[in-house]
Amino acid sequence: MALIITDECINCDVCEPECPNGAISQGDEIYVIDPDSCTECVGHFDEPQCQQVCPVDCIPLDPEHVETKEQLMEKFLKLTAQS
């Protein structure tokens, strides 16, 4: 699954620089996560780094983007493939 940032986000700016895939960006009102780039940090870390640093715990799994660990690893490999 990709992760999602809920409307409880306080725009504290700590999650964006922690994302190794660059999947987090400032949206219209709160930060957003691009599900095509989110691997839940699979391939980089054992735990999603954005969840680790979020002070208000507003980054749950996105039920609309269900993926297995294997699918997340495949996405990681595609995102990090050398051209």
TrEMBL record:
Annotated ranges, domain 4Fe-4S ferredoxin-type: 1-29, 31-64
Protein name: Ferredoxin
Keywords, in A-Z order: 4Fe-4S, Electron transport, Iron, Iron-sulfur, Metal-binding, Repeat, Transport
Signal peptide (residue range): none
Gene3D superfamilies: 3.30.70.20
Source species, domain of life: Bacteria
GO cellular component: cytoplasm
Pfam families, A to Z: Fer4_7 (PF12838)
Entry keyword Repeat: yes
GO MF term set: 4 iron, 4 sulfur cluster binding; metal ion binding
